[in-house]
Amino acid sequence: MPAFTATVTVRLKQGVLDPEAETTRQALERLGFDVEALRTADRFELDLAAADPATAEEQATEMTERLLANPTLHEYEVTVDRR
Amino acid sequence: MPAFTATVTVRLKQGVLDPEAETTRQALERLGFDVEALRTADRFELDLAAADPATAEEQATEMTERLLANPTLHEYEVTVDRR
Q1: How far is it, in rounded angstroms, from Cα A19 to Cα B30?
Q2: Which domains does chain B have, with CATH numbers?
Q3: pLDDT digit string (tens) for A60-76?
Q4: Cα separation of B59 and B65, whole Å?
Q5: Which chain B positions have a beta carbon within 8 Å of A75's beta carbon?
Q6: B67 — contact with chain A (CB < 8 Å)?
């Protein structure tokens, strides 16, 4: 089966507090940088085999919904590239 | 000054062990998914003001080298978009 890499980006929904990002922003300010806002996200790159890109995206989306993201807190996007 | 968003992706260098990624991969296998390899990365989105895109990229690169990435362990890429 063809080989794909699915890239999943998981970020907090707007309005969900992100203390890690705020701490990082404050640390950058202490170093003298001026950052208006900072958001963090997790990125997962999954190597998998599938019949076609649509199937690979479907698999990666199911993995994201079952494990990688929490639908209450997170939004996510999935992109698929041929490897 | 114009407003930019710099996106910084920080990942482990090839060869650096990533136990979190391996644990995630095993969890996906236990759920019945077949993933050949899984890599994780941290993504930071920085809102900042700068005279031009090149300056914004320079600032974000300096922030990355001073705080967001550890050059011994990580490689990174910086992209800049007008906000």
Answers
A1: 32
A2: 3-82 (3.30.1280.10)
A3: 999 999 999 999 999 99
A4: 10
A5: none
A6: yes
